[in-house]
Design a protein that fits this description.
This protein is mainly alpha-helical. The protein contains 15 helices and 2 strands.
Amino acid sequence: MSEVVGYIVLILVIGVIPGGLTLWNCFNLFAKSPKKPKLAFWLTFFIGGILYVLLYEISFDTAGDWYEVIYDIQFHYSISTQYGASVYIPAILGALGMMLLCGCKTEKFSPLVSAFAVAATVLFQVLQIVYAVQISKHISEGILLLFYVYHVNLFVLAVTGVRRLMKQQMQYYESVRSAGEEPEESTVKQGRLYRTVNTFSRYTGLIFVCLFFIIAVFEILFILFGQGVDAPIKAFTDTAGWTFSKQIPPPPMEYDGHYLCTVAAGGHKRVVRPLRYGRRRGQTIVVNRQLCIANAFEDFIKEKLPWFHKAVRNFYDTHGYPLSKHITTPARADVVYVLMKPFEWCFLIFLYLFDVRPEERIGRQYR
């Protein structure tokens, strides 16, 4: 029964929720009378954002900038930490502008606030499209395509918000003209601008999407080919292993897949708590306390009880190595780490009962 419930929740999270929100947003883009567009925006922006982050954490174990040595199953950061602020700050401002444009009552905005909301939203679209291309190198099929579902929804929401604001501005301008309040000296210029913007606002949703996308593509090319500020470009190019990456990283360390070494190296740092690098059979490995305690226990019984050590070693080789082949994600490594905790405590109690200097033995492992 619990498995059935789990599958139902998984289907809802993976398919129904993203799919339902996407259909809702697409309907609002093309419909003459959108259905609760602000609610659709807030649900998409936050629920989609949470699912996006969770999927990213599960899919990519990022572990350092391009010049840092990582394991061959890990990824370098997709955005350089040295230049990251030049992307993160505009992205935050862009997200704020999009929240104002798509999630609030724009008819009550002042001209400057409206202008900021539109400009920030366009900037946010440029950044999110560039990032979608940046990660595309590692996304080809399956569940990872959900990354693009979120990116497409953000774009659809932005287009919907800009269209809605344009129509509101046209309605306001029409009311001003009909009331005769338009200044004479600006009549010609405003009339020309009105006719142009009014033409845009009357485009169908599909044509508007195409025009918006062309503008975004030109802006992306403008940035990536060196016409923009240098730091945002380097934030994407000063990386390794991604679409826009220009750097060649150092050779990765081998992820051997042996026993608790797999857990120490492959789990999330906040869970498995790596301590330092160590040496194992001439290879550099990541060492945590659980690994050191287990190895210290083996070292003790090898020294004092060689006959027992042979049996333990045989069991470990028979069951540990095949198990390690299945520890292919940080989440699985975390689970194994937690499951091994009772054994770790037993090993530690044994060492403190029978070894004269247990911490010294633990500390010298993999040196």
